[in-house]
């Protein structure tokens, strides 16, 4: 076949035939090239890639994956409460403040809870730094728990309160299982003054407070803000209903020295006989309801200076003093032998 072509077609015609075959091959390959180019163009038109987990990216409350509440200074003041602890209990549905029924310091040093968990599992931060806990143990009926006394921070010096209503133990540890409360102090050069006065419907429990705060600029790159607050709470006592079926002994032993398992709500177990001695006595004498008398004075300072765009010198702190008196009753025995 090749010999026939060389014999009947000159060299020029052979070149023309080769060019024609080449054009035909390119024409057949053109659709494939077009499809490949279209695929490449489609691959380049991707949506914006969002990298999660980066600590440098800013997020707002609206687009955050975790439930976050932000309570402003105006919202705290609008509650009309005496201190930060009671204000958060009013403004934040997920924040729980148990009633004052504990004796001793339990009626004075109170602890808030997130999601009704152990108070020591709620981490409290001030300007992003850990706030120290109190020295009282067994807070709000949780054995071994310690909490942070939010009532010692001047409310007038707070710019906002950020609450993470989700566990953050992976970042902060076991003290953030219930959530995180971050208190941001004011840093502007403005000031404010406010007072309030109130009492219960029965006329007791009179309370009042006075708050003042102010700030100034330190040159062109610094600030200083100070706050002070005085709170006074009058005593209020309420009767506590008697529950005859309640056994006040936390550990009851029989005559053989064996522990007796109590019924629901520390009631008499099934099949047991009540002790006639306890028929007309207060089954829960150590519990008190009402509000103890207290006077609290607190101070705060928040300072900062930008040395450069990357370096800032800062410092903040609070000081508080509380004098309180609470009604107490006699204590019961730890164990009771039947």
UniProtKB/TrEMBL annotation:
Topology in the lipid bilayer: Multi-pass membrane protein
InterPro entries for the chain: Plug_dom (IPR012910), Plug_dom_sf (IPR037066), TonB-dep_rcpt-like (IPR039426)
Subcellular location: Cell outer membrane
Cellular component per GO, a single term: cell outer membrane
Record flagged with keyword ATP-binding: no
Signal peptide stretch: 1-36
First-listed, main subcellular location of the protein, grouped into a coarse class: membrane
Matching SUPFAM superfamilies: Porins (SSF56935)
UniProt protein name: TonB-dependent receptor plug domain-containing protein
Protein source organism: Janthinobacterium svalbardensis
